[in-house]
Specification:
The complex is a heterodimer of chains A (372) and B (367). Chain A has 372 residues and is of the alpha+beta class. Chain A is 33% helix and 24% strand. Chain A has 10 helices and 15 strands. Chain B has 2 domains: 133 residues, Creatine Amidinohydrolase, Chain A, domain 1, CATH 3.40.350.10; 225 residues, Creatine Amidinohydrolase. In chain B, the strands form 5 sheets. Chain B has a 6-stranded mixed β-sheet, with helices on both faces. A 4-stranded mixed β-sheet of chain B has the order 8-9-12-19. In chain B, strands 13-14-17-18 form a 4-stranded antiparallel β-sheet, with helices on both faces. Classes of the chains: A alpha+beta (372), B alpha+beta (367).
């Protein structure tokens, strides 16, 4: 699910080589360069901001904590990184990446054009173009009049989706943090806590468990769709819907919970829907099939808008970009997904539950489930 | 000004600019969220306010399930939930937007894919980003009260820092714990920078560096309360501060106080920066009062508007009652490194109100 973005990321984003070895990045850069050369491009410009930094983090481990950054890859394998901030702020920016000599980002168009002067003739590839502010691509095009700028998402995004063994290990670490946060939220709810208290308990537990980032959404009214807690007001809500997203070493884990002290038909139906999807989930199964299986269990209740796309890829992005505008179409081995079921019968009668799975050739491991 | 008057100001701007329709967009990355300023709803995804003369204002929010919070926050607005913002906007105008009579704000800050589609739909629309921000600038009474609450949270946050900071603790662990503490006090976000070293060159987002005896901790604490930012800037020595550090910090505080004393309605904002620079220049630091060492001595505070802008020599904005901003000399000195001190203030009818209860002092953390 979408989450509120904080003004500044304050958690531990420094590159930790023991967690993400240099060799992992070298492997990634090599494969990206291979695809770049094969498609006739002279270099690659990778954009990231604190909302969307998957491609940038994939190649450099750099997640902008404040504003935006660019990585510039030449076909000879050299990598440059420019980060927003004054020259003196590059001290801490440098700690976020293995790329040496992080430089301030001033005028992106001018800096990219200067870098491109040393490249062979030919078009430049851009990665994460769509996450740029709308007024930026025209300025970059104007700064590079002699070079066509091509979006490389279709060629490179698959690299983000397929998880390496290192990535799968990190995602399991992230799900352990999620489990701790979800347990704390549940425990605070069961002790009579308000929605805000439960959310803060989850955040505290996630921090203690080693999260570098945690976002929690919760109901504003009993049984209400979880949303940003943008007000200090908080009351006891039962049922309470919550959504927790945690990030560790760059990788997200997320979960939707619906907690209640009394039985609710919406919750029971949703549980059945999610259980049915989990039962069926394996490589090659179509999302449409999973959606139909879940819908059958909902007894005619309306599918919650947050669960209309019941499958989302997760990794360096909370919701991964897919090849199809419709989202995930078929489960693939080697990927990690969030499966989500939900029901809406009225403003105060919603239920949303989710699970994370790692799909393998013969089935799927459940990494975390709201049904547990 | 209240939020209804703010909406009226937007309609007046439309009339002045000859616009029958105005599209005002925002998203979760917007530092200046004009939709929030107009409606009271802070975007989780992309959102867009539609002002059309003679019709009730409409707010479109994404994703669709955000509709409940939007309804709770944007009183008096027609709310639409959508998965595809451009498609939802086009559905509101099946015959298209009035040519030559449409204005926009904020489209350029949306994600490229969305902004491009909306800009294409808007056609020859006039861009009013800066004019709209200026028209909506004055703070409401509620925002000023929220700034006071946010200031109180920041001050308690710094007290907490002095309680829990200790050598060996990574900067980011300290920052994470303080951010959560301020959330527990009611903050809903925090533009929070915290760094430390024996000789700082800048305040930055926190890193994994561990605090050491002899460090100087810089903390720019900027919680938001119901969406309204306030900020205090503070400095703490890890262990007993040197005499030089104590002396230079007192100088920076003196400069800040001179700046704050200058604040009153009718003066140029630049005068505040000048008053700070004069104190520092008199002590031989004139060259450190210019770029690259310093560009501004404070700034406006708000998610909806940065008005009245930076506390900088070239800011000619005339201060008026109820403007809220932070005065922070935040000075690099060669003997000590970068030092932070800053207080949020409100311009009153005849002078200035400091929103923080205690003025910055050189704090200490046990080594």
């Amino acid at each position: 699910m979408e989450v509120m973005q904080p003004a500044v990321l304050v958690g531990a984003y420094d590159w930790d080589e023991t967690s993400l070895p240099r060799a992992e990045f070298e492997r990634r850069v090599k494969e990206v360069l291979r695809r770049l050369a094969a498609s006739g491009h002279a270099g690659l410009v990778v954009y990231g901001n604190k909302l969307e930094s998957a491609a940038l983090a994939y190649l450099t481990n750099f997640t902008p904590k404040l504003e935006s950054a660019f990585a510039l890859l030449a076909l000879d394998g050299s990598v440059r990184l420019h980060s927003a901030g004054s020259p003196h702020m590059m001290v801490n920016a440098q700690r976020l990446t293995w790329v040496e000599g992080v430089k301030p980002l001033r005028d992106a168009g001018k800096q990219i054009a200067e870098w491109a002067e040393a490249l062979a003739p030919g078009p430049l590839g851009f990665w994460t173009t769509e996450a740029m502010p709308a007024d930026l691509p025209p300025r970059l095009s104007a700064a590079l009049p002699a070079r066509p700028l091509n979006d490389m998402g279709a060629r490179l995004d698959p690299l983000l989706r397929a998880k390496s063994p290192v990535e799968r290990r990190l995602m399991r670490e992230a799900r352990s943090v999620l489990a701790r946060a979800a347990a704390a939220l549940r425990e605070r709810f069961e002790r009579g806590g308000t929605a805000r208290q439960a959310a803060l308990a989850a955040e505290d537990a996630a921090n203690d468990a080693g999260a570098q980032d945690v976002r929690v959404l919760a109901s504003l009214v009993a049984g209400g769709t979880p949303t940003a807690l943008d007000s200090p007001d908080s009351t006891r809500l039962d049922p309470l819907l919550a959504y927790i997203a945690v990030r560790r070493a760059g990788y997200w884990a997320d979960g939707s919970l619906t907690l209640a002290t009394a039985p609710h038909a919406t919750i029971e139906r949703t549980r059945a829907g999610l259980a049915a999807m989990l039962e069926k989930a394996r490589a090659g199964v179509a999302t449409a099939e999973l959606a139909a299986i879940a819908r059958d269990k909902l007894g005619g209740m309306e599918v919650h808008p947050a669960a209309r796309k019941p499958v989302a890829g997760i990794g360096l992005s909370l919701i991964e970009r897919e090849a199809s505008p419709n989202g995930v179409e078929v489960l693939e081995a080697g990927r990690v997904y969030t499966l989500r079921a939900g029901v809406r019968t009225g403003a105060g009668d919603n239920a949303i539950l989710s699970a994370m799975i790692e799909v393998k050739p013969g089935g799927a491991d459940i990494l975390w489930s709201a049904l547990d | 000004m209240d939020i209804a008057q703010r909406l009226d100001a937007a309609y007046k701007l439309m009339a002045t600019e000859g616009a029958d329709v105005m599209l005002v967009a925002s998203n979760e990355l917007a530092r200046i969220d004009t939709v929030f300023h107009l409606t009271g709803y802070r975007a989780l995804g992309e959102s867009l306010a539609i002002l059309a003369r003679g019709e009730a204002p409409t707010l479109i929010v994404t994703p669709e399930w955000e509709i409940s919070r939007a309804e709770a926050r944007a009183a008096g607005w027609r709310i639409r939930g959508a998965e595809d913002l451009p498609q939802a906007v086009e559905a509101q105008f099946p015959k298209g937007l009035p040519r030559g009579k449409t204005a926009t704000a904020g489209l350029g800050k949306l994600r490229a894919a969305t902004g491009r589609r909306l800009a294409a739909f808007a056609g020859d629309a006039k861009t009013l980003d800066q004019k709209l921000e200026a028209a909506l600038m004055p703070k409401t009474a509620a925002e000023i009260e929220n700034a006071r609450r946010a200031t109180a949270i920041a001050e308690r946050g710094f007290d907490r820092l002095l309680e829990i900071a200790q050598p060996g603790m990574p900067e980011c662990e300290l920052a994470v714990r303080l951010r959560l503490f301020m959330e527990e006090l009611g903050a809903d976000d925090n533009f929070f920078l915290l760094t430390a070293s024996p000789h700082n060159r800048a305040v930055q987002p926190s890193s994994g560096r561990k605090l050491e005896a002899g460090d100087v901790i810089l903390a720019e604490m900027t919680p938001t309360y119901r969406g309204q930012l306030s900020q205090i800037c503070r400095t703490a020595a890890v262990g007993r501060p040197s005499n030089v550090l104590a002396e230079k910090y007192a100088l920076v505080v003196r400069a800040m106080e001179a700046g704050i004393r200058t604040v009153k309605p009718g003066i140029r904002m630049g005068e505040v920066a000048k008053a700070i620079d004069e104190v520092l220049s008199a002590e031989g630091y004139a060259e450190f009062c210019r770029p690259p060492h310093i560009r501004r001595r404070g700034h406006g505070l708000g998610h909806g508007s940065n008005a009245p802008g930076d506390v900088a020599p070239d800011n000619n904005t005339i201060l008026g009652e109820d403007m809220v901003f932070v005065v922070h000399p935040n000075q690099y000195l060669p003997e000590t490194g970068y030092l932070l001190c800053g207080e949020p203030v409100r311009v009153t009818a005849s002078g200035v109100e400091q929103l923080s209860k205690r003025t910055a002092w050189l704090a200490t953390v046990a080594a």
